[in-house]
Specification:
about 270 residues, Trna Endonuclease, Chain: A, domain 1, 2 domains, four-stranded mixed β-sheet, three-stranded antiparallel β-sheet, 6 helices, 13 strands, elongated
């Protein structure tokens, strides 16, 4: 599972916010619940819910010493539960601060979502990164990898902050133009089982780069990759002033567009 959301204020499009809540709500409903405590001088995990053990409840909990094999397994499961619960609580708190109504349920899987290229979690997992042939003389590095430009490095750092897994420079063959390209990023919107390509476009004042950018966009278009959904174009003209707010807005907007309106269940016949 991805790391705990660390944003001071979680600002998301409504459908994305609802999907993130529903994804975690469903996870929590299936995970062993519990907490940690010292019992008889030993570190213990107190299990208060387990789908496999209907007799276990908050009134009738099960205690395991973490030093035991079963205790260790439950300790890992409960730690995971508490991590997801923290994410869920942060998202719900932000929702309640933003809206005056309860969040809708989201109908998973998104069966009605248009997905001609079958870009889902399975597709993401199969792709290999760092497939590009060009190697810059002075690459840019960060904790998130090695990149060809500062804008790409800043993009990777921002995606990590947004809790969006990515792969850098995968390989994509476009039959319509008989060419293989290396998209800058492939993003995993894991909560809704979808992924999208992301192209970080810059240096359009340089003719050669601008021409190659035009060719790449045309290739995507001929293969019917929808802009703002299947492929996200982010224009960043100045490597010295990375516009993080604009970058986030474009990525969240694409995520939001991949969620059909009819996937939201408001209840009460709405």
């Amino acid at each position: 599972m991805r790391g705990v959301l660390k944003m001071k204020r979680i600002e998301l499009p409504m459908k994305v916010h609802a999907a993130k809540l529903e994804y975690r709500r469903r996870l929590l409903s299936e995970m062993p619940h519990g907490y940690f405590k010292v019992r008889r001088g030993k570190n213990s995990v107190i299990v208060t819910f387990d789908l496999k053990l209907p007799s276990v409840s908050s009134r009738c909990p099960k205690t395991h010493f973490i030093s035991s094999k079963r205790g260790k397994a439950y300790a890992e499961a409960v730690a995971h539960y508490l991590e997801i619960k923290s994410e869920y609580d942060s998202l719900l708190k932000s929702w309640n601060e933003t809206y005056c109504f309860a969040p809708p349920r989201v109908k998973f899987p998104l069966k009605s979502a248009y997905n001609p290229h079958k870009m889902d979690k399975e597709y993401f997992d199969k792709q290999k990164d760092y497939q590009g042939r060009y190697v810059p003389e002075n690459p840019t590095t960060s904790d998130d990898g090695v990149f060809k430009s500062k804008n790409e490095m800043f993009s990777a750092d921002t995606l990590k902050e947004m809790d969006i897994p990515f792969k850098y420079e995968t390989k994509l063959y476009i039959d319509e133009v008989k060419e293989t390209i290396n998209p800058d990023f492939l993003l995993d919107f894991y909560e809704i089982d979808r992924c999208s390509y992301l192209e970080v476009l810059g240096m359009n004042d340089k003719f050669g780069y601008a021409a190659s950018t035009t060719v790449k966009i045309t290739s995507y278009s001929k293969a019917k990759y929808r802009p703002g959904r299947d492929v996200i174009y982010v224009h960043l003209y100045d490597k010295h002033n990375f516009d993080k707010a604009y970058f986030k807005k474009m990525v969240w907007a694409a995520y939001d567009c991949l969620i059909p309106d009819d996937a939201l269940d408001w209840g009460d016949g709405c």
